[in-house]
User: Which sequence fits this backbone?
């Protein structure tokens, strides 16, 4: 199975600032990479798919980039509702696999 | 509006069985692969199984292969997960998720989850 590694594990950022989250795949997944946001007690919410396409109703401050094995989720001008756990996931090969998550916390 | 509602979770003893259900609405169920994903308490996400639109293909992650069975009833817009030989480490919130249609990505919609607790 493809191992997905996210960094950092925790990121402390002040509201209004930007954040960059990284995800590395153990082998190439092309652009079959998604990013999810999860808040406590809620199901994950799809933010980005195909590495850079924003899902329905996702604000423009969320953007994704990368291909192959290196991917980035960038959040510009953090809002209070953006502080959550973020997961990357590859769906290029079965089983689909997730990274371990990056917790984005308020500084 | 796309909705998926899971049911069937609860407390079960180690070695026992449980059947989860997921009822979908707001989209053409038979046009989509469907999946089950779980999350152990305080842990990350694990994509467990998926099933083709017509049920003819099923795939499982190694940790549940041979113990869990995914199935669907397109006439009832329903997805199921039969879980046998349950282990303490199967304790988790179980989500159904809409998988791909071939063009849509997997994971665009999720249910609210149902908690399965396996006691020793």
Assistant:
């Amino acid at each position: 199975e493809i191992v997905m590694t996210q960094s950092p594990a925790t990121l402390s950022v002040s509201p209004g600032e930007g954040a960059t989250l990284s995800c590395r795949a153990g082998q190439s997944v092309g652009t079959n990479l998604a990013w999810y946001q999860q808040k406590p007690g809620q199901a994950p919410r799809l933010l980005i798919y195909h590495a850079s396409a924003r899902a329905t109703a996702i604000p423009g401050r969320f953007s994704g980039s990368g291909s192959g094995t290196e991917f980035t989720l960038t959040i510009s001008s953090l809002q209070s509702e953006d502080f959550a756990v973020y997961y990357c996931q590859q769906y290029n090969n079965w089983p689909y696999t997730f990274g371990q998550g990056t917790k984005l916390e308020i500084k | 509006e796309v909705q998926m509602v899971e049911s069937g979770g609860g407390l079960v003893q180690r070695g026992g069985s449980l059947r989860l259900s997921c009822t979908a609405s707001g989209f053409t169920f038979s046009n989509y692969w469907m999946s089950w994903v779980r999350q152990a308490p305080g842990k990350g996400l694990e994509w467990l199984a998926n099933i083709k639109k017509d049920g003819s293909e099923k795939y499982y992650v190694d940790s549940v292969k041979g113990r869990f069975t995914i199935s669907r009833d397109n006439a009832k817009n329903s997805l199921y997960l039969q879980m046998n030989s349950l282990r303490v480490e199967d304790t988790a919130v179980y989500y159904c998720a809409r998988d791909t249609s071939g063009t849509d990505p997997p994971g665009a919609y999720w249910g609210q989850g149902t908690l399965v607790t396996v006691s020793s």
Summary: The two ends of chain A are 35 Å apart (CA to CA).
